[in-house]
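Objective 1b. Sequence-to-structure analysis of Aconitate hydratase A.
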Amino acid sequence: MAFDIDMIKKVYKTMPERVDKARQIVGKPLTLSEKILYAHLWDGNPTTAFKRGKDYVDFAPDRIALQDATAQMALLQFMQAGKPKVAVPTTTHCDHLIQAKQGAAPDLKRANETSSEVFDFLASVSNKYGIGFWKPGAGIIHQVVLENYAFPGGMMIGTDSHTVNAGGLGMVAIGVGGADAVDVMAGMAWELRFPKLIGVKLTGNLNGWTASKDVILKVAGILTVKGGTGAIVEYFGPGALNLSCTGKGTICNMGAEIGATTSTFGYDDSMERFLRATDRNDVADEANKIREYLTGDPEVYENPEAYFDQVIEINLDTLRPHLNGPFTPDLATPVGQLGKLAREKGWPLKVEWGLIGSCTNSSYEDLTRAASIAKQAVDKNIKAKSDFGINPGSEQIRYTAERDGILKIFEDLDATIFTNACGPCIGQWDRSDMKGDEKNTIVHSFNRNFSKRADGNPNTHAFVGSPEMVAAIAISGRLDFDPMNDFLINEDGEQVKLDPPKGIELPPRGFDVEDAGYVEPVEDGSKVDVSVSPTSERLQLLEPFTPLGNKITGAKLLIKAFGKCTTDHISMAGPWLRYRGHLDNISNNMLIGAVNAFGKKTNFIKNQLTGEFGGVPDVARDYKAKGILTIVVGDHNYGEGSSREHAAMEPRHLGVAAVLVKSFARIHETNLKKQGMLGLTFANESDYDLIQEDDTINFLDLDQFAPDKPLHIEFVHADGSKDVIKVNHTYNQQQIDWYNEGSALNLIKKQSVS
C-alpha cells in the first residue's frame, strides 16, 4: 500500500482533462515534461500557453522532501509562518549528519550521540506539523523517496539538488531552497520560470561494461556543468525502455550536475515493475489507467526536433564506459583513454579508495553489479589494491542485500559497509589513511567531485564512474586500468581477466526489512512542544531580515570571486554540517572556499576600513558592525552545485546586499531572491574586469527597480575614478515584493496576518 494514495488518485483523476486542455491551448502534441507542468498549475486547468525560458508560472507540487542538513533551516523558517500543519505531504530524512569512519553500527551510534539535539528537533517539529520522519540510518533521502513516494506524472520539490532522482519514476522532481519549500508547506503556490526542454533520444541496448551511469557521464561531457540550466531534460526512445527504473534514477540524479531544472523519463514497464516490487501495486494500477498521459505524445518522440529546444542522440550499443573528473563532473573521459590523459596532467595513477553508493548509485541493482565484480576478485584470488567503502541506499536495500549474501561478497574483499547515509559523497568522511593534503586519487560512484568535496583535501583527485567500474578500478588499484582489455595478476602470479558485470534488477525473493525507520506524525500536533535552547551551538531561532531598501550607497566590495564558485565554496559541508541549524555560527564559513581574484588566495581579503587582510566572515562582520553593506562579485555559473540556501542566507546575515556575477546557477539565484537580496548579472561580462579591490559601490537607480528593467551601479575606485556599469536581473514583480519586504518569508507572514 502506497503512502498518500488518495493524493495520487486525485492527481490522476484531473490529469487527463488538464493535459487535453493544454494540448488544445498549445496547439501541438506535448512532451511528458509539459504534460506534468500543465497538469500542476496552481490555477487548475490551463488557460495560457507559456513561453519556455521566459514566463514565470505558479505551480502546485504534490509533495515535499527535506533532508536533515537543509530541513533544519527550512523548518525554522516554517515555524515562523504561523501555520498549524503542512499543506502538502512532506517528509524529513536524516541522512547527511552521519559520518563514515568505522562502519555502519559504530558510525550510526556516534551520529545519534553527537547530533541528538538536531535529530530530536527535527523529529519533534515533524511530529508537530504533520511531517513524516525517517530516522538516522533509514536511508538516503532520494533512494527512500524512490522506493516509497515517487510516482509517475507527479510533481515534487525537495531541499536537495538531487531531488531530481525521482525522475527515474517519471516525476518532475526539482531541487529548491528551503524558502521555496516553506511556501508550499504553508499552502502557497510555488513559482518557477517555465523551463526550456532538452530531449535525449536513446537507441540500442547497454552491453558489457557500460552502465546507466555512463549515459549521464556522456551527457555531462556534452552539455557541461551549465548546459542544462533552465531546462528539463527528457529521455526517450527505444533505449530508454531498456533501462531499469533505478538506472533511470541514476541518470536523472546526475542531471543536477549539468544545471538542469530536472530530468525525467516516460512511464514504462520498468517503472511498473519497480512500483510492484516496492509494494505499490495500487499506484501501478492507477498509473496504467492513464498510461498515455504519463509519457510524451508519440508525435513528439517521432520528430523530437520540432518539440524540444535541443536534441541529443546517444546509441547505447556503442556507448563506452566513462570516468569523469577530476574536480568537475563534466570532464568526461572513456575508460581506456584515462591513463594517457592522467600522465599528461600529472594526476596520480595509484587509486587509494573505491567508494560505492550515495543517492546516485546505491540501489539493489547497483550493489549486485558491483558485487559481481567483487566476487570475481575473491574467486580468482585477486587481492584488492585499494580500500573499499559501501553505502547502501536504504535500510530496505541493506537488509535485502545482506539477506541475499551481497554484502558478504564485499566484506570478503575487506570492504567497509558504512551506514545507509550520504557519508563521503557530501564530505562526511573521517578518512584515516590521509593525514594531510597529500596528492592522491579516489574513484567513486557519486555525483559530484569538486575540490575538497569528499574528504576536505584539495589534492584529492576524485573520478566518477559506475559502481561496477569503480569496483574494477579499485581492485586493480590503478586509474589507467581498462577491465575490457587489461589483465590482473592474482596472488598465485597468474594473469586473470575480469568478466563483464552482471546485475539483478530487482531481488528475486522480493524486498524485505525489519524496521524501515519511518515514524508517522501524530494526527494533532498542537500539543507537541518544540524547544530550542538560546545557548545552543547547533540550533538558533531565526530573526526576520530587515529590508535593504531602495537607496544603497557607500557599499564596499567584499570579495571578487575568481573562477568556479559553487555552493561548496560559499558554504562548505563536511564538519560545517553541524551548524546548519544555527545561522550565526555557520556564517563563519561564508565564502571561505572562494578564490579571491586579488591575490588568488582563499579566505584572505582586504578590509577597506583598516587596510588589513583577514578572513571573509571576519571582514564581513566588521563591515556589518559599522553599518556598511557589501557586495560579492563572481564569475560564470555562480552557485553551482548543492541547493543549500545557507549559501544565500549567510551573506544576507553578514550584510551582503547584492551578488553580481557573469551568470548564476538556477537554484542559487532563486535562493538569493527569496532572502531579499539582489542577484544581478553583468550586462557586459567584460565589466567584471573593471571591479577593483578598494571599490566603493553606489546603486544609482534602485528606486526604479522593476521587471525587465536593467539597473546601473557606480564603482568608485581608490584613485577617485569611477565606472558606471549596467546590470541585468530576472526579478518579476512578486520577487521585487520579496526584496522590498526583506525576504519572501516576511511577505508570507504579512499576508498571513492580513
